[in-house]
Design a protein that fits this description.
The protein has 9 helices and no strands. It is an all-alpha fold. It starts with a helix and ends in a 10-residue tail after the last helix.
Length: 287
Amino acid sequence: MKRLLLLLLTLCVSVSFAQDKKDKEQLLALKKANNYVYQGNKLIEDDFISSEMAYRKALSENNNSVEAQYNLGNAYYQEGNFEEALYRHQKAATNAKTKAEKHKAFHNIGNILMQNKKCREAVEAFKSALRNDPTDDETRYNLALAKDCAKDEQENKDQNQDDKNNEQEKDNENQEDKDDKNKENDDKEGDNKNDKENEDKGEEKDKEGDKDEDKDGKPNDEKDDKGKPEDQKDGKEKSPPKPQQGKMSPQQIKNLLEAMNNQEQKVQEKMNAEKQKGIKVKTDKDW
């Protein structure tokens, strides 16, 4: 039993000693962090790089140091690095334990958002700052500016949307006009194509009519007349051939002489026959 009590007492002393050691280390880290913050504050006006290094050393000793985060954020803000400044002040607002610390962090967050043209977000940041310190007139004034900026921002956004819609409508109208013109051109091309096809068909029909001539060069109407009497061809009586004018061929002359001889022979034979009968034959025509 005595041994158990001795063991428990030893454990309590060890735990107490370890806790004391941890508390001392934390206090030493806080002290070092505060010293680095103090160095950074002294260097901020003349040497940004050295000041930034001092604040970072403070955060390496105590990552939850609100003072180091807040002052480092201010240093970045003065250098125009708003993105890094916003990040540091958001960390300070998260780690802040008092309303005063939260108020200062949110106030600066609102200022950074205004610089980034994020007016609606800035309004919310200034409202958060006023919740932690409603008496700060500067924060209230900045809130009014942020509200006006947010209103203008919304109006510009609406105007841009209206302009975009109008431009879209104009583009749609232009596209419709373009489609109508294309359709009209297509219709004209279709009409021209149909006219061309009809014209080509007419030419082909004419060509087919020419092809219908027989191998001897005779047209269809002559071919259709085959098998009909000569006087019914073409639906008309064929007129007797007209005598040709001009010089007669030797064959024609020969035929004509033979016909005359035959006619003369017939007349002579008839006269001889009449003489034999004793009848006078007239040789002149009656008038």
